[in-house]
Prior knowledge:
The protein has helices spanning 12-16, 26-46, 173-176, 281-284; strands at 48-52, 66-71, 104-107, 119-125, 130-134, 137-140, 143-144, 146-147, 151-156, 181-183, 189-199, 205-209, 218-223, 228-232, 255-256, 260-270. It is an alpha+beta fold. The strands form three sheets. It has a seven-stranded antiparallel sheet. Strands 8, 9, 10, 11 and 12 form a five-stranded antiparallel sheet that branches.
Amino acid sequence: MTEEVALDGSTDDAAKTPKAKGKTDWGAELRGLFWLILAVLGFHSLIAKPFYIPSESMLPGLLVGDRLVVTKYPYGYSYITPTFHVLPFMQGRLFGRVPERGDVVIVTPPGEARKGEDWIKRVIGLPGDTIEVRDGLVLINGTPVKRGPLHFGTIRDYGDALQPSEPKPTCDASDYGTEARVKGADGRTDCRLPLITETLPNGRTYETVELGRTQGDYYGPVKVPAGHVFLMGDNRDRSADSRYSLEGGGLGGPVPWENLGGRAEFVTFSVDGSATWNPLTWFTQFRGDRTGVSLHAPREKN
Length: 302
């Protein structure tokens, strides 16, 4: 009886023999996962990262629930740049560049007590500037920052729709008074805030909230040392910033530029905190008009 031979020289019986299933190379899988995690952390640390707004210190431009993109490279790199703030303080920045007035930045408060925290504020003073706040008016090198007339802006308040784990609503009566909460045309509560437009010496403009006289309305004068910046929140009377001591919950004066973690670029998406167990609310909670909002303060139009 003639034995059939396959074209590759193997016998028919050998050709019909099923091949053994390949075994998973767990070592290769783990190495691949390691390099993936390293790439993500590298991008997160050196290029850009997401940021969540948990407080009202930057109203009206930034709302609780906004998600942002923060770029890491505009000011260079420092000890605070890595995703996890585990490095000790090191002076200087690699490829360092001083921020521009009006930039919205991420900052880690000085000191070990808040080393893992990231705050968001606006750059008001640069190295060599003398900063003073007099009756709520900011002065840079003795010259008052230009201010527009008092006007009002309306923000949709999510109020009682918030879940217990969410921060208190915009326009909480203890902070803004009961008169700030007004009913909108659709019956929902809106937050009516008194606003003043500020224009910095370089022409960049933004809105600030003006709630009346507070401790932070009187400060300085203080000269910003070399390698430092002076930061303030746009919600002036509800912002812990460079005007307040570290012990008082603020930034303790001008902040070393090494503590800047990056520049805020734009809003990716925003949620109003109204989501419940109902899947329909997972979609209705999105603020559609917030997506793509730029966080670069515009220049004053001549």
